[in-house]
Amino acid sequence: MNDQATVLIVEDDPHIRRFVGRALREAGYEVAEADRVIRGLVEAASRRPSVVILDLGLPDMDGKEFVRELRQWSDIPILVLSVRASEQDKIDALTTGADDYLTKPFGVGELVARIKALERRHSGYQADKGTTYAFGDISVDLLKREVLKAGEPVHLTSTEYRLLCYLLANNGKVLTHTQLLLHVWGQAYAERNHYTRVFVGRLRQKLEDDPAQPRFILTEAGVGYRFRH
Amino acid sequence: MPPPASLLTLKSWRKLLNASVLALVSCSVVTFVTTPLGNLLDLVNIALLYLLNVVVLAVWYGRLAAIIGAIFGSLVFAHIFVPPLFSLAITDPSYLITAVEMLLVALLAGHLTAGLGSKAKEAANREEMLASVYALAADLAGAPDLDAVTRSVSHFLSATAKGSNHAVFLNDESQRLRLIGQRDLPADLSFEEAYLAAETHTLIERREGESGSQYFPLAMKNNCHGVIAVAWRERELELLERQRLQMLASLVTATIERVRYADLARNAMLKAETEQLRSSILSALSHDIRTPLTSVVGLSDALEASQPALAPHQLEMAHELRELAGQISSMVSNLLDMARLRSGQLRLRLEWQPLEEVIGVALEQIRRRNTGHAIKVSIPPDLPLLEFDTTLIERVICNLLENAIKFSPDGDIQLVAQEQRNTVAISVLDEGPGIPSGAEEKIFEPFVQMKQESSTPGVGLGLAICRTILTAHGGEIRASTRREGGARFTFTLPKGNPPEAEEAPNEEGAQT
After folding, report:
1. pLDDT tens across A190-206, in order?
2. pLDDT tens-digit profile of B454-493?
C-alpha cells in the first residue's frame, strides 16, 4: 500500500466496478471498492486513497453529499462519473469540490489518463508553479506579463490576461463558468455565463491556430473550460 | 285576433258573471228555504243564514262571489223579511241598522274567509313545490355526470310544469350552446333567445297573448353553463311557478359546476398519473439501459487495450465491438432525448454562446470515434452569440455529421455556418447519394430511414430528434440534394438580441 497508490471506486454497479478495477490494477494501482456513500466514506478514511472515483447516482445518498463530507477533512482528488444530459449535477459536484468528471459511457484509457493526471497534479500541488509557461508555439511570462505566439507579442486585454493566467494555474482541471466568473470578474457577475464564452472565444482567436478546434483551451460542454497541454 | 287588453276584460267579465250567478243561485236557495219558516224564525236567525251563505261562497268560490252574495243577500233580506214585507222601504230605523250591519259583517266574513282559503291553497302549493324541489335537489346531488343532470331536469319539468314545452341547452367544450336530450327545439322556443340569455346572464322573458316563454341562464360567477327554456300556452306563469323555475336554475347551475370541477379534477389526476408513469419509465430506461451499456463500452475498450496485445483479428473484433457499443449508446441518447422532449420533461438550458464552441465540441466527439473522415469547417469569425441549449445542439450537429459519415463513407464532408438576416444557418454537406426526391420532409419523421433496405445502422430517430430540438429552439431544419451530388442538411437558429460582454472591473492588463 505504501509504494502503490490506491484508487477508491464508489459505484453501485458491480460490472462497472469490476472493469474499472481491472483497468486500474493493470495500470498499477491498488483498488478499494464501495457501493454506497456511507461505505465509501469509511473506505476513504481507512484506506487513504490517492484518488476517488465517484458515481453521482448512488442508491443511498446524493453523490454530492459524499464530496461535501470528504472535503471537510481531505483534499483527495475526486473524479465524478455522470450520465450525459445532467450537466447541472456535474457543475454542482465540481462546485462542491470534485476535481474532474467523466461522462458515461467512457473508455478505460481515458479514465486511467484522467486518474494519472489528477494524481500527478495533487502530488505536485505544493511545488513551485513557476513563472513561465510554454505550450505549442506560445510562451507566457508572468513576471514580465508577456505573451508571445511564434515569437511575436500578443496583445491581450486585462480581462483576457487574467482569464489566461487562471486557466494556466489550473492546468488540466475543469473550471466551471461560475468559478471563472467569480475569479476573473467577481461576485456580481456570477450568473453571466456568456462573459466567459465571449472572452474564451477571443483568447482562442488570439492564441489557437484553429479556434473552432482548439488544442489548449478546451470546452467542457455545458460545464466550463479546461486548459490542457 | 283581439288585442290582449280586451281579452283580459272579457275574462274578468266572465268571472264576474260566474260569481254573480253563483251568488244569485245560492241566495235564492236560502230565500226559498227560509220563506216558509219566516213566521217561525227570528229575524236575526234569518240574517245569520244569509251570512252563512256568504261564508260558504267565500270558502268555495272566492272573494268576488262572497261580495256579490253579501250585497244581494242583504237586499233580499231587507225586501222579503224586514217589515214592511216585500218592500225595500225600512220603517223602523233599528231594522235599517240590522240590514247595514248584516251587509258589513257579510262583506268582512266573506273577505276573511276568502283570504284564508287562498292562503291555505297557496300554502299547499308552496309545500308541494318545496317537496318537488327537494326531490330534485336530492336527485341532482347524486348525479355523476351531465347526462344524469339533464335527465333529472327533464323529469322535473315534465312532472311540475305540465302543459308546457321545455328545453335544456348546455355549453360544450368550445363554449357553444347545444340543445341537450332532444333533437328539435319546440316551435314556441327559440335559439336566439337562449343565446341572448346565455350571453347576458339574465332571465329573458317573451310574451305573446296568453302564451309566453322564459329563458333561465345557468350562470354562476362569470361562467354560463347553459340555459333552461320553458314555454307556456294559454295561461300566465304564476309567481310560485316562476320561483320554482328559478330554484331549478340555481340548483342545476351548482350541480353542473360540481360535475365539471369533478371532471377537471379527475382528468388532472389521470394526467398526472400518466405523466408520472412516463417519467418513471424514462428514468428506469435511462438507468437500466445505460448502466450495462457503460460496462459494455468500458469492457470492449479494455479488451482492445488489454496486455499482452490481442492477435490482429481479435483486435479488429474488439474494435468493432467498441464502435457498435458506442453507436448503441448514441441511439439510446437519441431515444431518451426524444422521449423527454416529446413529453415536455426536458427543459431547455438556453444560454447565449458562440456557435464555434459547440461545433468544436461536436467535432471532438466525432474525432474521438476516429472514423478518419476529413471534415472541412468554415465558420465566419464574427458570428453573433446565439441562444441555445449546448447539449442539444451538439446532438444535432453530431447526428448530422454521423449521418454524413454513414452515407458518404469515402467522400468529403463540409460544415459551413452562415449569417443570414434573422438567423444563422449551419449546413452539413456530404458527397453521398443525396436525398431521394420527394423524401425531403419524410426523413424527419421518426423511424423513417433514407433507404429502407439499407444495411446502414440506425433506427431513423437521428433526424427526427434534430427536428424536435430545433423546433424547441424556434429554428428549422431542411434537407436537399446538392446540384453537384450529395446531401445538404441545413438548420437555422434565430439571432435574437445577444447580450454584451464587458471587460472585468479593476486592475490593469498585460502590456505587450
Report:
1. 888 889 999 999 999 99
2. 444 444 678 888 998 998 899 999 999 988 888 999 999 9
Contact B349 A108 (CB under 8 A): no
Q: Please report how many Cα atoms fall inside a 13 Å half-sphere around the Cα of residue A38, on the Cβ side.
A: 3
Q: Is residue B113 domain-shared with residue B166, that is, in the same domain?
A: no
Q: Would B409 be classed as within a structural domain?
A: yes
Closest partner CB to A105 (pick from B293, B336, B354): B293
Distance, in Å, from the CA atom of A78 to the CA atom of B234, rounded to the nearest integer, reads: 94
| pTM for this model (two decimals) | 0.61
Model ipTM value: 0.84
Residues of chain B found within 8 Å of residue A26, distances taken between Cβ atoms: 306-307
Exposed/middle/buried for residue B349 (C-beta within 10 Å: 0-12, 13-18, 19+): middle
Give the distance from residue A90's alpha carbon to the nearest chain B alpha carbon, in angstroms: 13
DSSP structure class, residue A185: I
Q: Is residue A1 part of a domain?
A: no
Q: What are phi and psi of B84, to 5 degrees?
A: -65, 130
**Residue B189 structural domain:** 144-264
Instruction: Compute the half-sphere exposure of residue A140: CA atoms within 13 Å on the CB side of its CA.
Output: 21
**Rounded Cα gap, residues A46 and A1, in angstroms:** 12
Q: Assess whether the previous peptide bond of B308 is cis (omega < 30° from 0).
A: yes
Residues of chain A contacting residue B390, judged by C-beta atoms under 8 Å apart: 221-222
